[in-house]
Amino acid sequence: MDGEAALKYAVQHVDHPRAEVVEGRITLGAPSWDHERIAARIRRQLDQRVDELHCLTGSGNLDLPGSPNWYLPDLAVIPETLALGAAALTPDQTLLIVEVTSESNCDTDRVTKRRRYAQYGAPLYLLADRQRKECTLFSEPHDLGYASVDGPHPFGTPIRLPEPFGLTLETTGF
């Protein structure tokens, strides 16, 4: 078993609900209630449209094959059919990935995950930055990053999610 496979195997068997591998290092997260509050507000705003699209939201495993990364996003929207029997998906199988920063991981979410999600084809990446009190929507992924960046917008500014969502997220109260 090579190093990448060993690391990814290990993180799946760590007795911790928020274990992930970021650039070859196993990290253990413990989100605060404020962090969870923002993720829940985003999820509630997406729920009806997600149901209409026959998708689901969750924070399941995302594998980035060929890299030492195994992410557990704060929220991802995926087609429901992909969830059947899947231990992990890849970022290009998502419709949207949301990360909410914490003091301990803000640079990872702002820089590392943004770059990796783009490289692995995640079509939309929404970053809710609690420390800076702003949201940014990244779209049009390619190997060097996202070609389109909407933001950063201060909390309280509505964020328009393009199709297939076609809705506006209200960020007041984040």
Any descriptors?
tt1808, chain A; alpha+beta; 174 residues; two-stranded antiparallel ribbon; 12 strands
Architecture blueprint of SSEs:
Layout: H1 3-12, E1 19-22, E2 25-28, H2 33-52, E3 55-58, E4 62-64, E5 69-71, E6 75-79, H3 80-83, E7 96-100, H4 106-119, E8 124-129, E9 134-142, E10 145-154, E11 159-161, E12 167-169
Parallel strand pairs: 7-8
Antiparallel strand pairs: 1-2, 3-6, 4-5, 6-7, 8-9, 9-10, 11-12
Description:
There is one protein chain. The chain is α+β, with helices and mostly antiparallel strands. The chain has a single domain (about 30-60, about 70-170), classed as Alpha-Beta Complex (tt1808, chain A). The protein is built from 4 helices and 12 strands; from the N terminus they run αββαββββαβαβββββ. A 6-stranded mixed β-sheet has the order 3-6-7-8-9-10. Strand 7, helix 4 (about 105-120) and strand 8 form a beta-alpha-beta unit. It is globular. It starts with a helix and ends in a 5-residue tail after the last strand. The model has no long low-confidence stretch (mean pLDDT about 95).
